[in-house]
Design goal:
InterPro entries: Bact_solute-bd_prot1, SBP. Keywords: Signal. It holds the Pfam family SBP_bac_1. This is Putative aldouronate transport system substrate-binding protein. This protein is α+β, with helices and mostly antiparallel strands. It folds into 2 domains: 209 residues, D-Maltodextrin-Binding Protein, domain 2; 229 residues, D-Maltodextrin-Binding Protein, domain 2 (3-Layer(aba) Sandwich), CATH 3.40.190. It is 40% helix and 10% strand. It is built from 24 helices and 14 strands. Strand 8 and strand 9 form a beta hairpin. Helix 7 crosses helix 8 and helix 12 runs parallel beside helix 22.
Length: 545
Amino acid sequence: MRKKQIVCLTLAAAMLGLTACGSAQSAGTAASTEKAKTEGTEGTKSTETPEAGKDGNSSEPVTLTYWVPFGSSAAKYVTGDNDNVAYQEAMKRLGINIEFIHPAIGQEQEEFNLLFLGDKLPDIIAYADRYAGGEFQGMRDGVFKDLTELVPQYAPDYYKVLTENEEFYRESTDNNGHIVSFNNCKPVADPPFRRWVFKKDLLSELDCDIPKTVADYEAMFEKIKAKGMTPYLLDKFGYEVQLEGLFDVYYNKDNNFFQKDGVVKCAPLEDGFKDYLTLINKWYSSGYISKDFSSIKDAEANTLFDTDQIGTYLAPTVATFNRGERQGFEVVSAPYIRLEEGQQLHWEDYNVWPRTREHESTVVISKDCQNVEAAMKFLNYGYTEEGANLYNWGVEGVNWNWQGDERVYNDTMLNNPKFGTEEASFIYKVHFAPKINYPDVECHANLLKSEGALAIRMKWSDDDKIDSSLQLPPYQLEEDEQQRLGEIMTPVNTYIDEMTLKFITGAEPLDNFDNFRATIKSMGIDEALQLKQDGLDAYMAKEVK
């Protein structure tokens, strides 16, 4: 895992010195941006290879096609990345024209699959990790270019990032060291964004301090219940990793395995998972958890919190804070819950790895691309200092200006009469793409726009009693191994999901937990664990250049 580098509190304090007058400023150039630059972009401008930007012997710029989803709220105001101001500036600087092709929103996977049934693929394709078997299987199938020998020459800035960041190299190559995709790299982690949230007025009314331990929460839940409110809304599937982490296990719908000291484990086989279920069953039986938790969607959860029907839940702190500001209530957050104060936790799952996993940020060059050098030149640009600044901030004089030696967003970004700041981020900057990704607390306009939003994101980020040692790196298995893993885990996961809800609600007594484990064993979980273990061992043994 990365050596956790989070924007420090001193930097946060500087950021919170934001002034009004319709602009927000970042103090990150003195710290996190400079760190990001040294992770592969320091001292580099765009790598100019003019020949790559020309169409054969013509003096005309080459035109490339680029298939990538565009699902942001900005779709209400622009047709897609063809209207993106930062991309337009990059094309001008590089002498390469890009024709973006976007699938219909909500149909990304279907239209991605259809690409491979056509006569000709677009030159550049995002979403490549969604190819059956992953992007490296696409390379083995011959539909994605193997870039291993080309990257050092034609994408030197990307190659520098790869070879100077050991974890990023492991995540971006297969077990044989092949390079097939350009991936988003975030060298400096952001503070976690998801925590327990409360209305400040409710805590005051209950005469409760911000809770820190299980005992604190249970005392608070009793007071909330006495008011006729439901104290807590559990995730609809019954998995809350921040509570599982109290017992050193980790399991949810997206992550079925974790590790301890290099050994792959599945949480429902562990005593810690029984301890978790025991706690949640106690809370459910005590009336602390909504009886309807398994049928409530995210948007409904927000409404229940906003209208005082539930006392607390786990949610994105900034989004909840901003929603509260609009509706007239103040939101506060809590530190990670613990059994006892000072407990060392090991479950942290946010920004653990330098490669971010947005599907738009795994980008390959197709077998049908006739100007691979130009495609690589364009994709390399996001790893240069010049390109990373452009993609993360936008165009100087258009949506930001210098204020002394700091970049400051202007009203085009913060108070645009046509659309909100969130939409502006997708129109004037490049949000999800292959690039060096600067921290949100440095250059995310929607965050910097509000002192309170930034403060709640930074709150509790100095917690030094949590690490990510339970987390598995995001390695890929070979196609046949992945297929076999899926054959085993699809019915296993279904069974675990069903039994987890039964244990929580009391429909199945926890006395039957050993039978539950035995059934999982009988379904082939040991073979699945061995597949994951072999994958982890190969990943960790990979030679880093």
